[in-house]
Amino acid sequence: MKLTANSVLFKVIYVLFSVLILSACSGGGEEDSTLEIPDSVKNAPTQKMKQVGQAVIDDLVQNVSSPIEMAALIKKAGVPFSKDYLSDPDLVDKYNSTFDKALNLGVYGADLGYLNMYNKTSLIINHITTIKKLTEALKIGQFFDFSTLKRLASNNENLDSLMYISTSSFNKMDRYLRESNRSNASTLMVAGVWIEGLFLATQVADKVKTKEINERIAEQKISLNDLIIVLKVYNNEPGFGELIGYFEEIKSAFDPIKIAVEMGEPEMIENDKGELIIKQNDKQTVTIPEGQMEKIIEVTARVRNLVIKK
Amino acid sequence: MKRSNVIILSLVLFLVSSFAFGQCGDELVDNCASDIGDATYLKDFRVKLEKAEKNKPAPVQRISVVLNKGTTYKFSVCDAPEYDGKAIIQLYDTSRLLGSSLNMSTGKLFSEFKLDCSKTGVYYIFISFQDGNEGCAAAILSYVEQ
């Protein structure tokens, strides 16, 4: 067949427009129409969701600090890295249910934040391999850029990118789960991040006494209350009742902690460099009764070890 | 190839590249996150809002986050170039406005601001577009090591 320049050009244009239209319809590549519908979606707890609206769930789920912040605080306190604090990647074979997979994806996510903070690239590869397994099982593997993370970790290069891609992958997975009516899995992932972050901090607090870490642990009381509210939305689903029970035990240990705030007048300042800075000027006081931190450390370790099935 | 064909092909390639790289999504977030300097990325938020209806307030998106005492946070925003809207970030605690990327007294709009956080708790980020224009933006929450 003889092709003229015009017919070739027409075909090029046709193909390019087809690609263009398909890519525009795919929502930036975040959705995959070939994905199977997980059981958790088919059995979505619609009645409960009506009582606590999706927007409220989104808000409450967001109200958990990033594990990176806790890891940064630990590192800033001069506490050396310890592999013993981490959940063993080999435990992954014990996580057979969607519930355990989502929960422990969060646990490994928090550990990955801790590893990234200390630039432990050799250990990162084991963790990201485990995380890849879990994300594929949960059908969110498309948001975890394993090959790039592995390359960056293997070559010990561009550690900022390693940290960014790790953190943003978890944010994308969380967003996708919530947007695709799988907020129960998102909640479990966030609960896993939270318990592991608290575990890391309490393990450090058990060995090194610093006011900053003790206060940050005590302040988890705020996130915990929100987390329990969201978990209760799914109370009728398998596994949630037990997990709520564990988190209620932790809550009891946090109850005697008092957090008081004296309001100040916020100021907006434009400094010499032309940067805009808000100074909040509130004064927060955290009171931890004698012996209470020890109780928090004990119950957190017990619950976390139940979560990871150690 | 005829000159007219070259022009058509160039136009098509331009359109394709605009869609591929200018869309209001991951690309915008990644570019915005790469521009936060020494700060460490924590979260991103994507905002796409319609043009305000006549005589009605500008649409706004509300996002809640927990911020921690003793940490300096940076809030950065990047506008998608294919929209007119320039994003404004306002930060509230549970009861009041703490600050905004728009300096009301000078009218200067900042693409980022920092918060020296002195109270752990829930905060609300409100994002709208100046003059109620249609817009798309990526906002990045990061922390600055002291």
Layout of helices and strands:
The complex is a heterodimer of chains A (310) and B (146).
Chain A: H1 5-25, H2 39-42, H3 46-51, H4 54-62, H5 67-76, H6 98-117, H7 121-137, H8 146-154, H9 159-179, H10 183-207, H11 211-233, H12 240-254, E1 258-262, E2 267-270, E3 276-279, E4 283-287, H13 292-307
Antiparallel strand pairs in A: 1-4, 2-3
Helix pairs in contact in A: 4-10, 5-6, 5-10, 6-7, 6-9, 6-10, 7-8, 8-9, 9-10, 10-11, 10-13, 11-12, 12-13
Chain B: H1 3-22, H2 26-33, E1 40-49, E2 60-67, E3 72-79, E4 87-92, E5 97-100, E6 112-116, E7 121-129, E8 135-144
Antiparallel strand pairs in B: 1-8, 2-7, 3-6, 3-8, 4-5, 4-7
Structure described in brief:
With 310 residues, chain A is mainly alpha-helical. Chain A has helices at 5-25, 39-42, 46-51, 54-62, 67-76, 98-117, 121-137, 146-154, 159-179, 183-207, 211-233, 240-254, 292-307, and strands at 258-262, 267-270, 276-279, 283-287.
Protein architecture, described:
The complex is a heterodimer of chains A (310) and B (146). Chain A has 310 residues and is mainly alpha-helical. Chain A has one domain (49-259, 290-307). Chain A has 13 helices and 4 strands. In chain A, strand 2 and strand 3 form a beta hairpin. The longest helix of chain A is centred in the middle third of the chain and has 25 residues, at 183-207. Chain B is α+β, with helices and mostly antiparallel strands. Chain B has a single domain (25-144), classed as Sandwich (Jelly Rolls). Chain B contains 2 helices and 8 strands. Chain B has helices at 3-22, 26-33; strands at 40-49, 60-67, 72-79, 87-92, 97-100, 112-116, 121-129, 135-144. The radius of gyration of chain B is 18 Å and the shape is globular. Classes of the chains: A mainly alpha (310), B alpha+beta (146). Chains A and B meet through helix 1, helix 5, helix 9, helix 11 and strand 3 of A and helix 1, helix 2, strand 1, strand 2 and strand 5 of B.
